[in-house]
Amino acid sequence: MSSLKLKTTILDRSISKGKNEVSLNGFALLFSEIVQYCQNRVSTVPELQAKLSEFGQQVGIRMLDLLIVREKNGKREIKLLQILIFIKSTVWKSLFGKEADKLEHANDDDHTYYLIEKESLVNKFISVPKDKGNLNCAAFSAGIIEGILNTSNFVMYMNHTCKSDSTLAQGNNIYD
């Protein structure tokens, strides 16, 4: 008897299975190319950050679809706090290998939440030229959050800041 091996293609594999790791070097190279691609198509830092945010929104839309199938069996979150916890934990872990550091609720506004990330992976390998001194590539991460929330039908205003004050250590990325 001869044993025949059936060829399996990527389409034959289950979507729920997959490696949860991406090479850090591969990510750094790919993200660096994304930044260069965007930089060659804009002239100012705000335009560059907006372009990075647009890329992030597309990633967020696709990650939401993938993670809902993998993690939630097709069920989407319909409450704001639950989707924010999902972003902080599941999405961040899938994309960056760790959860975001904090999710805080603003004291003065019931509809304002802060997702805090102390060391952003997207800023780790980017060297900012002097002429683009205030560039923060974490606009890409803010775009991911915005893409997920918009796709989940949450009306929102997204703001990304890099703050340093008495309560936060230098370089924290805050998405509110």
Automatic annotation (TrEMBL):
Q: Which GO terms describe its cellular component?
A: endoplasmic reticulum; TRAPPI protein complex; TRAPPII protein complex; TRAPPIII protein complex
What quaternary arrangement does the UniProt entry report?
Part of the multisubunit TRAPP (transport protein particle) complex.
- Entry's InterPro entries? NO_sig/Golgi_transp_ligand-bd, TRAPP-I_su5, TRAPP_component
Which cell locations does it reside in?
Endoplasmic reticulum; Golgi apparatus, cis-Golgi network
**Can you say what this protein is called?**
Trafficking protein particle complex subunit 5
Q: What does this protein do?
A: May play a role in vesicular transport from endoplasmic reticulum to Golgi.
Q: Which family, according to UniProt?
A: Belongs to the TRAPP small subunits family. BET3 subfamily.
Please give the superkingdom of this protein's source.
Eukaryota
Q: Which terms are listed as keywords in the entry?
A: Endoplasmic reticulum, ER-Golgi transport, Golgi apparatus, Transport
Q: Does the keyword Cell inner membrane apply?
A: no
Q: Which CDD domains match?
A: TRAPPC5_Trs31 (cd14943)
What does the entry give for GO biological process?
A: endoplasmic reticulum to Golgi vesicle-mediated transport
